[in-house]
Amino acid sequence: MLRRLTTTARSMIGATITTVTALALASCTLATESGEDASGTPDRSAEPGSTVVLVTHESFKLPKKLIRRFERESGLELEVRPAGDAGSLTNRLVLTGEDPIGDVAFGVDNTFASRALEAGVFAEYDAPVPPGAEDLAVPEGEGRLAPVDQGSVCINVDTAWFERSDLEPPATLDDLTDPAYEDLLVVPGAPTSSPGMAFLLSTIAEYGEDWPGYWEDLMANGAKLTDGWSDAYFVDFTGGGGGGKRPIVVSYDSSPAFTVDERSGETTTAALLDTCFRQVEYAGVLANAENPAGAEEVVDFLLGEEVQAALPENMYVFPVDGETELPEDWARFAIQPDETYSVDPAEIAENRAEWLTEWTDVTTR
Amino acid sequence: MDRRHHPLSRLLTLAGLAAGPLLVVGVFFLLPVSGMVAQGFVVDGRFAPGEVLEVLARPRVRRVVWFTLWSAAAGTALTLLLGVPTAYALYRLRLPGRAVLRAALLVPFVLPTVVVGVAFRQLIGEAGPLGGLGLDGTPVAIIAALVFFNLAVVVRTVGSSWESLDPRPAEAAAALGAAPLRVFLTVTLPALRGAVVSAASVVFLFCATAFGVVLVLGGLRYATVETEIYLLTNNLLDLQAAAALSLLQLLVVTVLLVVAHRARSRRAAPIDRRTPAPARPGRGDLPALAATALALVLVALPLGTLLAGSLRVGEGWGLDNYRALGTTGSGRALVVPVTEALGNSLRTAVDATWMSLAMGLLVAVVVTRRSRSTVERRVRAGLDGLFMLPLGVSAVTLGFGFLITLDQPPVDLRDSPLLVPIAQALVALPLVVRTIVPVLAGIDDRQRQAAASLGASPLRILASIDLAALRQPLLAAGGFAFAVSLGEFGATSFLARAEHPTVPVVIFRLIGSPGLDNLGMALAASVVLAGATAVVMLLVERLRVPGLGGF
Amino acid sequence: MTETGLELDGVTVRFDGTPVVDRVGMRLPAGAVLAVLGPSGCGKSTLLRAVAGLEPLDDGVIRYAGRDLHGVPTHRRGFALMFQDGQLFAHRSVAENVGYPLRIRRRPRRESAGRVEELLSLVGLEGYGDRSPATLSGGERQRVALARALAVEPRLLLLDEPLSALDSSLRSRLAGDLRSILVAAGTTALLVTHDHDEAFAVADRIALMRSGRLVQQGTPGEVWRAPADAEAARFLGYASVLDGDPARRVLAAAGLPTGHQVALRRSALAVAEDGPLVGTVRSARATPEALRLVVDVAGVGEVEAVAHGSGVGPGERVRLAVDPGRLAEVPMD
Fold it and tell me: What range(s) does the ABC transporter domain occupy (chain C) (predicted)?
């Protein structure tokens, strides 16, 4: 049949093949140009143990120096592959469980941990957890997931604004429905934002079955919803610097460390420590990993003193190691709650979809 | 006597020409998407379509689909309403600084939605200068943002076609006593229909799959099919519901493409092309100029907010945010400085641009050649639609699809650095095709035949007839592809490697980090990205050589 | 013995299964000019395109100089194709258009420049080289297209209605020019047209085509003298075709044997004092050469006739003579 093609056709096909080949060749050039790690797909089976792939969320960051030292000491090459936010990361891990996209994962948090554990994403590895971190472990993740960092999502208030307005800032979740605080709160949405979800969980922990009623009151009191945390904090919050109009926002316990006034040396915002939900991020070796031994070394590395000390300034979270020294601003202004709301991870995994659907119904009614 | 000609051979020829682009679309689009949809249909290793279909009966789904359709339709209509007169003013009238304006209109195209969302909200939010209008969290804000993003598509597609339109038929109609509006409706618009329909279908797809702006500006009150798929897949891993919506999305997009194809192919006669000198604006051009001014204001306001934000330092003004671009941000928020990310962005954009141009050219040639039989015509129309599909499918579906399908040799590509430019090229492909096709279709096929009979080989014909007519549209298409690649965030953030982030990825990271100076840096980086785009576009415009050209 | 030029055998082209060109066979000796004459939609353009290699054949053979052209792409056939509207390349100057085929063949620049000059003067457009096609009149564009087509001395020149886009006076003048240019260049040419004047003015041989099939071919004289059937006669420009009694009467009046249909030119019947036919004038219209009449002839019906000199008006009875040289006998269908 091909012989029957008109010659025109044949030369056109020739042109196509040339183009495609050129495309492939040029792309190869690109691949080699793009840096030290760009040897295409790393052939991990050829030299077992030489490369270890860490799958994590897009907020992961550590000083290059630390990573280089780790590589030198372990003889491993660490490849970091970011995969969206915590939810996206978890779901990617679940979907690719049989043929994982890496050897070790960091960043699955306590709201997603159960889902990952249920799906059998993590292999067994009992990491040496630092002192003080035992309480942060997921019950059913014992021996699989090691807590690496933690931080709490709390209501933040612009103390300067409240002083100027001669109004007492709120202190509890109940206060937020008080007409005195009408139109003052901005909340990132639970389905699109991880602190938004954490705040929803706070309310579920506080009000149990009645949480939708609380949210109705909150909305009736003029709460504003945004898509993400940055939008809420930088655009709508008065203390975020974006010229917003609302002095109450859902943010982190560490946020006050970032609003220190240069002249007075004091922070202008405060976290309400009775409104917090603690988020814990875990690391674990992936089942079916190609380099499980390397993966274990990475987990140990993340739990080590150096990484723990680098967490606040690189990922804006607290170390789980209670003995780690904090940066100065953190030590002064990032005050952690003694007690936080908590919801059983298994319960979260089971009810997430239902809660989010109901939340959406209530808030957009 | 033997049968000398078999219709199948022509179809094979077609397949041969389309082989390259088909392979790319097959591996990087059809395979991942069908893999992801299949996940929804297979429950515990058993085919269960019933549950997927049940999803479609949910009242929420109906609401979401309805909002998607009407907001996209409204966005498209408004974009056309503003864009067509603007195209006229910027391509047919001798306006001062029109080259700069054309380039400026393309800027929104490259801005990451997160940044645009913040800019829009600073403008129309409670505390913003336009806060009094109460637009925050309303569909009006969403639609305004859709128009903001897509104006460039209409202006460039329609404008480049309008620029080379023979003015004489319109003059003849005017001489016959037709009023300007009538001339426009009866002579000019039919001649531009190919370009207008092309632009409209692309804009509709962009609007219907808009994601970031809906989330940011809709205040979670409004959900589209796209945002719904994102939440279902990314947060809930409800693959059945996601598969149902993905299928629905594919269906709607297919219907749209068929309708658009019908509308385009109604025009039969080739269009005589010549480039008349731009006219001095007259009083009759006032409505067009007014629409242009409105369009420019719509684009300028958010950009101005952005620029102001980037220059804001504490209580005063300054360039500190720009100086910081060479660093990794306050509290070292970044892995690499923004300057390095800009290098990555430009490199990737160059690759994505030529990839999409090469593929787009082949596709355009395939779909515009004359068909000899109904089957052939259908095959060509089908191919035409196929290459538009990537625009109409959720980036999340595609991204997750990559992970679960491209993991086996010979296509074990999920770690490949090539994925980023390829994915961007796929996103840009429909724009490239839609820019080139109207021009190619407007070439009288007998030009090619005359050249062939004079001894020109097919490649020579491609060079001396098609490419000669395509020089400017190709530049326009290249500019588009470049801009799309620079601004692409969805697929890129999913695929880019940590060590080689592009500017939008870096901006997203900066804006998500605490500290006001990080926000300032994000805005400054956006301004730099916008500036880089505008400069590239201006250079492309400069390359246009008026008058006789050719090889 | 003339050299073998173009040969067609059983050439068939189908669109969606329907034959558009149906088993066409013809011979065109080298150096000759053949016109394929037919109404629009008869398949003549498709036939031309098939010869050019632009339409694949469903059946049949096309040979040139004895060689089967199957599988030879358009650009390797050594032909040239000229369209109704010239299809000049708008983005090139006149000289660049004419020089295009020379450039493709990589002729030295100086040689091509000379050749372009020569061709432009052949078509009467000296000094037009730097003009843009957009500034030319229709006739000038066709001349440029012709020069471009002749540039590389094609083995066969294919002309698709080359003059029909022009106005009538220009057309007849250019038809004569075309003929002399083709003869001067010794070009073998295949012309398709729906205009019999154009065909007769340019061609050595005529082929009549209808519904995809050839109905008749021969020299202009042969075809003119003996149309294959009534429809062919009408298409060749005969004003009317008579059969039955009227035909018998007219043939008898011309002194010819009967038994056929007869095709009449407008001037076949002329007013003559001793004419054998009698009729009443229905209308009269003056033209520069003669008075054109419509006459109701007894036993024949209304036919066209001419009168020279004396004024004849409607209502008058006239006698008519038949000029046997201005009618053609047509075989019964």
Answer: 6-236
A3 to chain C, closest Cα gap in Å: 9
Per residue in C220-240, pLDDT tens? 989 988 898 888 898 888 888
Pairing relationship of beta strands B312-313 and B46-47 according to DSSP bridges? unpaired
Q: Around A229, how many Cα atoms within 13 Å sit in the side-chain half-sphere?
A: 24
How distant is the Cα of A338 from the closest Cα of chain B, in angstroms? Answer: 23
Chain A positions in Cβ-Cβ contact with residue C73 (cut-off 8 Å)? 6-8
Q: Which of C58, C74, C82 sits opposite B4 (nearest CB)?
A: C58
Measured between CA atoms, the residue of chain B closest to residue A19 is B358
CB contact under 8 Å between B358 and A26, yes or no, is no
Structural domain containing residue A198: 152-277+340-363
pLDDT of residue A25: 42
Give A215's pLDDT tier (boundaries 50, 70, 90).
Answer: very high
Q: Do A6 and C72 touch (CB under 8 A)?
A: no
Do A238 and A320 fall into the same domain? Answer: no
* B127 contacts: CB under 8 Å, gap ≥ 6: A236, A243, A244, A245
Q: Residue B277 corresponds to which tokens in the numbers above?
A: 């000198």
Nearest residue of chain A to residue C73 (CA atoms): A7
Would the pLDDT of A323 be above 50?
Answer: yes
Determine what percent of chain B is predicted with pLDDT higher than 90: 9
Is the predicted pLDDT of residue A281 greater than 90, yes or no? Answer: yes
Give tens-digit pLDDT for B182-198: 888 888 888 888 888 88
- My answer on whether A165 and A133 are in the same domain is no
What is the distance in angstroms between the Cα of A227 and the nearest Cα belonging to chain B? 5
Tell me if C6-234 shares its fold with C240-330. Answer: no
Which stretch of A340-354, B54-68, B146-160 has the lowest confidence by average pLDDT?
B54-68
Report yes or no: B314 at the A interface, CB cutoff 8 Å: yes
Instruction: Give the closest-approach CA distance of A135 to chain B in angstroms.
Output: 26
Indicate the fold that domain C240-330 takes in CATH. Answer: OB fold (Dihydrolipoamide Acetyltransferase, E2P) (2.40.50)
Distances (CA, A) of A158 to A270, A336, B211, B314: 7, 17, 31, 17
Report the SS3 class of residue B236.
coil
Q: Note the CATH architecture for domain B14-265+285-543.
A: Orthogonal Bundle (1.10)
Q: Smallest Cβ distance to A12: which of B309, B458, B511? A: B458
Domain ranges of chain B: 14-265+285-543
For the full predicted model, state whether its pTM sits above 0.80.
no
Contacts of B154 (CB under 8 A, 6+ apart): B79, B80, B82, B83, B84, B86, B87, B196, B199, B200, B203
Partners of B505 on chain A (C-beta within 8 Å) are 58
Burial of residue B108 (number of CB atoms within 10 Å: 0-12, 13-18, 19+): buried
Q: Name which of B9, B238, B333 is nearest A353 (Cβ-Cβ).
A: B238
So what CATH class is C6-234? alpha beta
Among chain C residues, CA nearest to B455: C75
| Averaged pLDDT for residues C182-201 | 89
Helix (H, G, I), strand (E, B) or coil at A1: coil
Whether A248 and A301 share a structural domain: no
- What CA–CA distance (Å, rounded) separates C229 from C213? 14
Q: Is the CB of C71 less than 8 angstroms away from the CB of A8?
A: no
